[in-house]
Design goal:
globular, eight-stranded mixed sheet, alpha/beta, three-stranded antiparallel sheet, Arc Repressor Mutant, subunit A, single chain, HTH_trans_reg/aminotransferase, Aminotransferase class I/II-fold pyridoxal phosphate-dependent enzyme, Aspartate Aminotransferase, domain 1, Aspartate Aminotransferase, domain 2, 3 domains
């Protein structure tokens, strides 16, 4: 289908032009893969400055509606199923892409399931199960800027549900959200499906960079989503010095919603360094149990400022939006069981040890990997990741490239196509030593063959 010309696209501001194109996509007048007019042509058609047309395309790219293909132009984004965490169709390949915890290190829930039985909970009762609420308060209170007796707690069906609820109660469509770049896949999808626009904030080994966060706030970000430790996919963990720098940046923006997604919490080998200062007015700390108690236990605790808690309560009332008391009782039974807590500690130590061992194997192959935290390693390459991953497939391995975790939506500065990623995310804790040695050697060979 040819790209629309003349009056088909309308508007005199970037927002109006972007809304016009989005409406054409929603009505089916533009289909996935259709080309949009070049920036210069669109500006001439609409009688606007070229920068206005460029800004309109950038807004659409930030929301995932379009993608730049460099000299091939800007096209409506494909409706293909986006990349997701978890198992993939590996077939005969050895999967080092999944990012899953080890099943052997997830506590056995049978005793907790029996302990969860009790009287039925009826409509209109409190959202929190009393026993779990006390435990959750003790878990969250040391890491937030309010006394324990003033702490406002909420629940969600996992960290992704928490993020969706937090953004929905604070934002409107087209609002800007600052996200880490590269970023956790579910955060990217949640922001785009919510109709918000993602602003990439660069990462280094200490997390979000202060300059990157400052730039996002100056562009008008109304929410910031960040990971204090074991960032997925990079494994970066915030230092005390970096946390102080980020708090200083945020001090000038006290009403921007800051969401700390401490998803790895009890498994992490690194301390928690908050960026939410005592004067900040809108904030949330999110901790889920999925990484250590199992992904099927969809339960997250949110500590927030009072206003955010009040708005969240409107979506956590009796009915389908509450979080099951059975799930809360199961989670509470696991978290107060000494044997389960010992297994969780063992899991965190094993993930860190296996990652460190594999990093040493890569170092012996001339591939230097910065130490990190989390379930996976973020491996820098001297060749495009897609090419290296293809060579690994020929050797029997399924790896995940860094391209999937990027926020640029294929659009760089000025609208050109962004360069391909040069990172792989590898999950290696399930590999025996001989397998890890073979993967390290195969990766070195794949990089060499990829130029």
């Amino acid at each position: 289908m040819p790209a629309p010309t003349g009056p088909a696209i309308s508007g005199s501001t970037a927002a109006e032009i972007a809304d016009s194109i989005r409406a054409l996509i929603e009505r089916g007048a533009l289909s996935p893969g259709d080309a949009l007019p070049p920036v210069r042509s669109l500006a001439q058609q609409l009688g606007v400055n070229r920068n206005t047309a460029t800004a309109a395309y950038r807004r659409l790219a930030e929301s995932g509606a379009v993608r730049s293909q460099g000299r091939a132009g800007t096209h409506v984004a494909s409706a293909a199923v986006p990349a997701r965490e978890g198992y993939t169709e590996a077939g005969a390949l050895r999967d080092v892409a999944a990012g899953n915890p080890s099943p052997a290190l997830i506590p056995d829930l049978r005793a907790a399931l029996a302990a969860a039985a009790g009287r039925p909970v009826l409509y209109g009762e409190a959202a929190f199960d009393p026993g779990f609420e006390d435990w959750a308060r003790a878990w969250m209170a040391p890491d937030v800027p309010v006394p324990a007796d003033e702490l406002s707690l909420s629940l969600a069906g996992g960290a992704v549900d928490a993020l969706e609820r937090l953004l929905a109660q604070a934002l409107m469509r087209d609002d800007l959200v600052a996200l880490e770049d590269p970023c956790f896949l579910a955060s990217i999808h949640t922001v785009r499906l919510g109709g918000y626009r993602a602003l990439p904030v660069p990462m280094d080994e200490e997390g979000m960079t202060p300059d990157g966060l400052r730039a996002a706030l100056e562009q008008g970000a109304r929410a910031v989503v960040c990971t204090p430790r074991a960032q997925n996919p990079t494994g970066a963990s915030r230092t005390a010095a970096r946390a102080a720098q980020l708090r200083e940046v945020l001090a000038d923006h006290p009403y921007v919603l800051v969401i700390e997604d401490d998803y790895y919490s009890l498994l992490s080998r690194r301390p928690f360094h908050p960026i939410i200062g005592p004067e900040h007015r809108r904030w949330a700390l999110v901790r889920s149990v999925s990484k250590f108690a199992g992904p099927d236990l969809c339960l997250a605790v949110l500590a927030t400022d009072p206003r955010t808690a009040q708005r969240l309560s409107l979506r956590l009332g009796a009915g389908t939006t509450w979080v099951s008391h059975l799930l809360q009782r199961i989670g509470h039974a696991v978290l107060r069981d000494p044997a389960a807590r010992e297994l969780i500690e063992e899991a965190g130590a094993l993930y860190a040890r296996r990652n460190a061992e594999f990093a040493r194997l890569l170092g012996a192959q001339g591939i230097e990997v910065p130490p990190g935290d989390g379930l996976s390693l973020w491996v820098p390459l001297r060749a495009p990741a897609q090419q290296v991953a293809h060579q690994l497939m020929r050797r029997g391995w399924l790896a995940r490239t860094g391209d999937e975790f990027r926020l640029d939506a294929g659009t760089g500065q000025g609208g050109e196509a962004a360069p391909p990623s040069r990172h792989l995310r590898l999950t290696v804790h399930e590999l025996e030593h001989a397998e890890a040695e073979r993967l390290a050697a195969d990766l070195a060979a794949a990089i060499a063959e990829s130029g």
